[in-house]
């Protein structure tokens, strides 16, 4: 049989999405991005950053946290291959189906078992101190939770 021109030949069809996110590059730098499409096995990103094919990237967006290797690049972005299994795969599949039906992804805070607070909101100091076994102390900078 022959496939019609433009038909989806991927293992898992990509759903067009428009979600802001950020990713962590292998060198530890964090960059803003937009998700242009997503499936259970891959994510297409729009980012104005030089990318290395085969490198491991971590992505955080409204759908959750993903890890994958760069499969290809294209003008204005790149695609990563991901691997999801078990209950998480089903949750992402359900959320993608909901998004495809016109529903926006829900706020991540609604899925959490316990609320999260900024240190000041929780009555904690803004900074933390790391104490090493030899007694050396160092200030810890706030960064994204990966």
How are the strands ordered across the major sheet? Answer: 1-2-3-6-5-4
Number of strands: 8
Radius of gyration: 19 Å
Structural class: mainly beta
Unreliable stretches, pLDDT < 50, 5 or more residues?
Answer: 1-8
Short description:
The chain has 146 residues and is mainly beta.
Characterise this structure.
The chain has 146 residues and is mainly beta. The chain has two helices and eight strands; from the N terminus they run ββββββααββ. A six-stranded antiparallel beta barrel has the order 1-2-3-6-5-4. Strands 7-8 form a two-stranded antiparallel sheet. Strand 7 and strand 8 form a beta hairpin. The longest helix has 15 residues, at 86-100.
Topology, please?
Elements: E1 15-24, E2 30-38, E3 42-46, E4 56-61, E5 64-74, E6 77-82, H1 86-100, H2 108-111, E7 128-131, E8 137-140
Antiparallel strand pairs: 1-2, 1-4, 2-3, 3-6, 4-5, 5-6, 7-8
Feature tags:
single chain, 146 residues, mainly beta, six-stranded antiparallel barrel, two-stranded antiparallel ribbon, 8 strands
């Amino acid at each position: 049989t022959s496939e019609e021109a433009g038909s989806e030949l991927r293992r898992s069809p990509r759903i067009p999405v428009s979600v802001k996110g950020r990713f962590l590059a292998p060198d530890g730098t964090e960059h803003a991005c937009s998700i242009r499409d997503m499936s259970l096995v891959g994510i297409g990103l729009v980012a104005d950053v030089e990318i290395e094919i085969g490198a491991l990237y971590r992505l955080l967006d409204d759908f959750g946290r993903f890890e994958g290797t760069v499969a290809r690049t294209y003008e204005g972005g790149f695609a990563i291959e991901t691997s999801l299994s078990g209950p998480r795969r089903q949750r992402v599949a359900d959320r993608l189906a909901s998004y495809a039906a016109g529903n926006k992804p829900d706020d991540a805070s609604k899925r959490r078992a316990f609320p999260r607070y900024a240190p000041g909101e929780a009555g904690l100091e803004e900074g933390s101190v790391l104490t090493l076994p030899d007694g050396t102390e160092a200030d810890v900078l706030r960064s994204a939770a990966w």
